[in-house]
Amino acid sequence: MRKALGVLLTVVIVFSFGVLGLAQEKKPLIAFSQCAMNHPWRVAMTNDILYWAEKYGVDLIWNDGEMDAAIQLTKVRDLLLQNPDALIISPFQATALDPVKELCDEKGIPLVCIDRSIDSEPGTGMYISFIGKDNVEISKQLGQFVADYLYSIYGEYKGNIVEIQEAVGSSATIERYNGFREALAQYPNIKIIASQTGHGYRLEGTKVMENYLERFPAGSIDIVYTHSDEMALGALQAIKAAGRTELVGRIVTIDGQRAAIKAVVDGELLAVADYAPHFGEAAFRTILEYLEGKEVAPVQMLQFNMYHMQTAEGKAFTTNYYNRMLAEDLFY
């Protein structure tokens, strides 16, 4: 009897270790909700997510929110029905996608927001981390760069700026809008004389700039500030088509697309603040550390750079980076 019991225990122990081994071999299932796939920046972000999912050895499921908050929320529900080990989301709008946190809380699924956040506070409930770049600080530094540039031209802080905003309601738009103004608040003679959304797209940037060029004659605009490279390149196209050469080299923007960096090197854009869509490595590392029981930072701001040709140091840094983009075939 004791011998039979010993054999049974041995079988149970071996079987248990076998099941444990299989469990340990199972890859984490990570879900990713992208807010849109009709923009090169978003495509580059998704490719980065796919690349790092493979590098980290996780199974990935993902879908496209189609640039519509209601559709994205519905598609998030679809992803959560598959009971992933974690959800990564780049939300289309902060308030409209805030219910995602409650959905993750209900199911006990860790949530990581990348690039854009939701209204809820990172580090509360299952919303374990927001990973992005500091849009407020980026736009503040860009605003100060513009102020200093205008001073170098006029010998005083003065000038008129037109602005083309990103998608209405997104956290990035709000932050890039506010940060730029925060930097210029100390210079009352530098004025933003018009602000309109271009929704982040090149064609819309062209249309908004065409409207500005009709409204404001030559000499009444000193700087064009756009929230994204695509809109900056669209604005540049409108400026060239209208023969408004006084504004070539007077556009500042945010992202870091190769075509925009080239335009800086060529003297057609004044400056680009980097907001490249590379969040995959930090997102998967954060999730896997959390699943291992480690503490993760509720807010993670990645580094950014400024590309311009206004100083010897800036010229060398920008030129070297552009050459690297060419050598490595980097879109961002």
> How many β-strand runs?
12
Helix proportion range: 40-55%
How much of the sequence lies in strands comes to 15-25%
Query: Structural class from helices and strands?
Result: alpha/beta
Low-confidence stretches: 1-23
Integer tally of domains = 2
The strands making up the biggest β-sheet line up spatially as 2-1-3-4-5-11
CATH class of the largest domain: Alpha Beta
Number of helices: 11
Q: What string, H for helix and E for strand, traces the elements in order?
A: HEHEHEHEEHEHEHEHEHEHEEH
Cα-based radius of gyration, to the nearest Å: 24 Å
CATH architect. name of the largest domain = 3-Layer(aba) Sandwich
Query: What summary fits the major beta sheet?
Result: 6 strands, parallel
CATH H level, superfamily name of the largest domain:
Response regulator
Mean pLDDT: 93
- Give the end-to-end Cα distance, rounded to a whole number of Å: 71 Å
